[in-house]
Write a structure and sequence with these properties.
- By secondary structure, the chain is mostly helical.
- It has two domains: 3-18 and 145-207, Helix-hairpin-Helix base-excision DNA repair enzymes (C-terminal) (Endonuclease Iii, domain 2); 29-138, Hypothetical protein, domain 2 (Endonuclease III, domain 1).
- Helix content is 61%, strand content 0%.
- It contains 13 helices and no strands.
- The chain has helices spanning 3-13, 16-28, 31-40, 46-58, 64-69, 72-79, 85-102, 106-110, 114-121, 129-138, 149-157, 167-175, 183-196.
- Helix 2 (16-28) packs across helix 13 (183-196) and helix 3 runs antiparallel to helix 10.
Length: 219
């Protein structure tokens, strides 16, 4: 393991205590709720996701049938706090219809072997690698590191991969040195690090513990 890899793992571990509560929340959700939350989380923070999901729950929308039967304007109103609410309402409607058409429960799919489960999940509208992997790591227990925009940015700034690296290259690169038992927490910790320190705009390089090893540091 290189010095940079060791340092990144050390930095991520420093955030584990902060993100363990998120991990516990994910464990308390059923698989469909986590799928919904992951779809809603685009371009917003988890606090807004929780508010939107609470709105949906209060109206009986937080199930497959609830979303299918929901008036689209009422669904949009419930999602408004999370932004992009019209797009997200449409996506949730499409996902719910696809799940009903499957004739399988989401838990049935998540009990399949990794490659099969991942492929089936990605048949759902708007579900790509990241959303599928979130479900597979937090609900099926597969030792994965889902790659979101924050993690993508951090890994490329550190030059652990080149700028053209795709999702799978980044995931496998991180999994090459992060122990399987830590990968769920590492995923959450790196997202927090990306939001708090290695931000998309105005990264806080002056307070970053990786700045002495980072080829992209500013100042």
């Amino acid at each position: 393991m290189s010095n940079l890899e060791k340092k990144l793992l050390e930095v991520a571990r420093g955030f584990y205590g902060d993100v363990e509560k998120i991990l516990e929340k994910f464990k308390l959700m059923n698989s469909f709720e986590l799928l919904v939350g992951t779809i809603i989380s685009q371009n917003t923070n988890w606090k807004n996701v929780e508010k939107a999901m609470a709105n949906m729950r209060s109206k009986g929308f937080l199930t497959v049938d609830g979303i299918i039967n929901a008036d689209v304007h009422e669904l949009e109103k419930a999602l408004k706090v999370a932004g992009l609410y019209r797009v997200k309402a449409r996506r949730l409607k499409e996902v719910a219809h696809k799940l009903r058409d499957w004739g399988l429960s989401l838990d049935d799919v998540l009990s399949m072997r990794f490659e099969e489960a991942r492929a089936r999940l990605m048949e759902l509208p708007s579900v790509g690698y990241k959303t599928a992997d979130v479900l597979l790591v937090f609900k099926s227990g597969f030792p994965l590191i889902p790659i979101d925009t924050h993690i993508n940015r951090i890994v490329k700034r550190l030059r652990l991969v080149n700028d053209e690296a795709d999702y799978e290259e980044i995931r496998l690169r991180l999994e090459s040195f992060v122990p399987p038992s830590e990968r769920a927490l590492f995923h959450l910790a790196l997202i927090k690090f990306g939001r708090d320190v290695c931000r998309a705009r105005d990264p806080l390089c002056g307070r970053c513990p990786l700045s002495d090893l980072c080829p992209s540091r500013r100042g």
